[in-house]
Amino acid sequence: xxxxxxxxxxxxxxxxxxxxxxxxxxxxxxxxxxxxxxxxxxxxxxxxxxxxxxxxxxxxxxxxxxxxxxxxxxxxxxxxxxxxxxxxxxxxxxxxxxxxxxxxxxxxxxxxxxxxxxxxxxxxxxxxxxxxxxxxxxxxxxxxxxxxxxxxxxxxxxxxxxxxxxxxxxxxxxxxxxxxxxxxxxxxxxxxxxxxxxxxxxxxxxxxxxxxxxxxxxxxxxxxxxxxxxxxxxxxxxxxxxxxxxxxxxxxxxxxxxxxxxxxxxxxxxxxxxxxxxxxxxxxxxxxxxxxxxxxxxxxxxxxxxxxxxxxxxxxxxxxxxxxxxxxxxxxxxxxxxxxxxxxxxxxxxxxxxxxxxxxxxxxxxxxxxxxxxxxxxxxxxxxxxxxxxxxxxxxxxxxxxxxxxxxxxxxxxxxxxxxxxxxxxxxxxxxxxxxxxxxxxxxxxxxxxxxxxxxxxxxxxxxxxxxxxxxxxxxxxxxxxxxxxxxxxxxxxxxxxxxxxxxxxxxxxxxxxxxxxxxxxxxxxxxxxxxxxxxxxxxxxxxxxxxxxxxxxxxxxxxxxxxxxxxxxxxxxxxxxxxxxxxxxxxxxxxxxxxxxxxxxxxxxxxxxxxxxxxxxxxxxxxxxxxxxxxxxxxxxxxxxxxxxxxxxxxxxxxxxxxxxxxxxxxxxxxxxxxxxxxxxxxxxxxxxxxxxxxxxxxxxxxxxxxxxxxxxxxxxxxxxxxxxxxxxxxxxxxxxxxxxxxxxxxxxxxxxxxxxxxxxxxxxxxxxxxxxxxxxxxxxxxxxxxxxxxxxxxxxxxxxxxxxxxxxxxxxxxxxxxxxx
Length: 823
Hints:
alpha+beta, six-stranded antiparallel β-sheet
């Protein structure tokens, strides 16, 4: 399709050209002796009407007769503007050229006429063409069919430093290192020109980048268009190229696109080091050849930036764009340096940086440097240095404004990352304070655990677990899950874990503990609660178990939580026969206890649903996978934890995952002594004697006085206030445990006896002689217990003589690595 449908009407001949003008011939008397058809077209008179008539009749002026006679006798050509009379009576303003004839033969002059308006239009076109050739900033270059230079206008001549030296040479010789940067076109200029020559399709508005011969240092960008040239027969003569230097406009567009990219990329990572790298990625190479970012250590660590330190001192230059590559090197700027001036004034400063400035490791001298402070409303965060090593152009005002804009965006991103780092560190401190960092050593169990928060950015979640030492060498085991993750879930989890530990130390059985916990959660979920968190629905599940190493019995209850998985010493694995009750806070159904006798060396797996349920994997498949891991139950517990979590599907966690593995132990028979005593005050002396003998057998004779006193008081209370026999139990564990059980349900109270009171000092003596004492209730009554510290020498000997379990070689230091929230 022809892009210029009216191009055939464009005629570059002059309106006074003989091929176009209205022509007439006059004799020396001014009569018309020749009249062409073009003259008839201009004035409407036919040849029959015009021939022989005086030319003065065609003039609209009264002096036409004298003027025509004078022109016919003139010896030189003349051009003037005349008003001519048309046949229909109207006046035609025309440009008229008179040319005298040397050999007259009856003719004196030839007259050429054209409408004045048409001539003025033609002259304007001619002036335009002359302007394009001599004054236009658009470069015009003509190539022949061999694509060699034929002609160039003044603009092309200036860019090439003289067109004459390139005449007859190919287009590739003009800009040997240039390239097209527009898309969807061949990158080679010869291919573009060949396409235009062969197809006649013009190529318009392609961007070309290179160095002009007249300015070989500075890079330029041109907008180029190519059009085919045809002769009168329609045969190709060659083609011409239009080129306009758009370097400034192109750079402005690039600056705008750079700001758009910066808005999308800089500060998106919430990481200080990545934000610095993002600034360099965006600015290089479009604005600078290199970008350096210097920050105080406090900013990198997430603390407040210093406000009173000397400018340029104590900064760290960041290197690397990934956490693995990241490193810092110290840098310091003298007070007289441009860098220190920029930091002190808060303004950008332009200058050159010597190769060894400020202790920098780089040794490349820069043509130009731009120092821009990284500012927030509160403080100066650091300094960004923009360097140009290959580009000799100094940073102009627009580029300085652009650099300041980039630095402002980077400063906001760095400050956000600093605050996030601070909050993340605080969240981790909160998490570590809410979860057990070091589980207490227990004779009853060996434990290992893993914790994987779903919110890997914050590193905290709603899962919790705990191992709680209880009286009688027993241990409480709990795992729970607050639905959701993040800071709210972690705060709720912390309150519940503390509550569970408090209730557990009251020696409540699992079902009673969950019932009380259910009431507390229901109260916190009430709409009128004013803790700021009650507006969100809170769903909490919890499992609590008590293991007794004397009997080997484990009792547990569940509030909506998955039951534990048990791997016995023979290697068989099964889910516990436990039907979970409702989640906490609903108060729908009571909770029930489940008893299970465990052999020594059994492994219990307490876990949250994040361990067995994930994207692309249902909960049954996850349970089967965990059961398969537990078939290796004789492996160290730490290894079992790693096996269990390494089998999780790759990718981000949907929910927090917590795994607590427990290997049970049972106390040897020679560590426990039971004695049933009748309800007779006379047996108190017998109880003291038996206690002294048992301690002598255990090698703890130095505890006899304190132990006999404690036993005497506890047995006396049991006989005095209860009915039926009492049971005395002594347990040699990490401490000496003295327990007296009776059938009464009344709780003893410690009180201060007055001087004239005959009783009331027994429990006071028990409290003074023991390191801990308390009461727990059973189905048949209560048990009062007291713990006496065993001398350290005896404990050390016992540890050396004790057989090493499967997990004994594992270092206790690994406990600090178990919180996978630290991952």
